[in-house]
Description:
Shape: globular
Number of helices: 7
Strand order of the largest sheet: 6-5-2-1-8
Mean pLDDT: 91
Radius of gyration: 21 Å
Order of helices and strands: HHEEEEEEEEHHHHEEH
Low-confidence stretches: 1-5
Number of domains: 2
Helix content: 25-40%
Strand content: 25-35%
Distance between the termini: 44 Å
Amino acid sequence: MTDELNLTEQVKNIINAALxxxxxxxxxxxxxxxLEQNTGKPLLVELQDGYARKASDCWNPGGTSSxxxxxxxxxxxxxxxxKISPKNQRIHLPTTTYVKYDGSPYHPNMTEVLETxxxxxxxxxxxxPDTHTNWNLKSKLSSRxxxxxxxxxxxxxxxxxxxxxxxxxxxxxxxxxxxxxxxLGYDPSPQTKGKIVENIRRMEENAKPSLDHNEQxxxxxxxxxxxKLDQGIWSYESQPGVTINGPVYLNELCRxxxxx
Length: 260
C-alpha cells in the first residue's frame, strides 16, 4: 500500500513545506516527474469521510462507517503542469477535463449524478487530511478521541487507477470507471473492459430458455454498447491461453438477442 500512497504523501508534504515557508522546489520537481511518467493515463483523487470509533469491548469492536465520497477522475495532460499556489492555498493537478462524483459510496447508480468539468482538478489545502492546514482533519482518530469524523485521501495515477476500480466492492465499480472513460475519451485496458464482457459471457453460458433471462442478457448487452465495448479492435484473456475478441463477441450477441 506504501507505493499507492506515495503521490498522496508527496502532496501532503509539499503543502506542509509551503505552510512553514520551506523549500518546495525539490518536492515540486519530484511530483512533476511522477506525473509526467504517467502522461496520457488516468489520475484519480478520492476523498472519503466517515465516522470512526475506537473499540471498547466485545460489544463495540470499533471501526469506521462510510459517509460522503468525492471522486475526481481525469487524464494527465502533458502540456499542463502540476501547480501549487500558496497564496490561494490550492493545488492544481494536470488535467484539462475531469469527471466528478460527490455522494454516497453506495449510490445505486453513481453515473446518474456524475458531473463533467473543464480544467485542472483543483483541491483546497483545507480539504486534505493530515496536513498543518487543518489539525482537526485527520485520517485516524487522535489518541484522546473515542469517536469522531475522519477523512481519508488517495491520489492515484496510471495503472493504479484501474486497480482501484477493479478492487472496489469486488469490481462493482468497473461500469462507473468505464462510463467515466467514455466521457473523458480515454481507452482503458482490454482486461478491464473484458470484465464486463466476461460477466455477459457467464450469463449467456448459463442461459435458461426463458423470457426473463433473455431480457437480463439484452439489458447487459445494451449497457456494454453504451460503454462502447462493441467498438474498436481489442481482445482480453478470459483465462490463461484463452483470448476473447470483445467487439466480435458482443456484436454476435447483438444479432442473437436482437439488440439494436
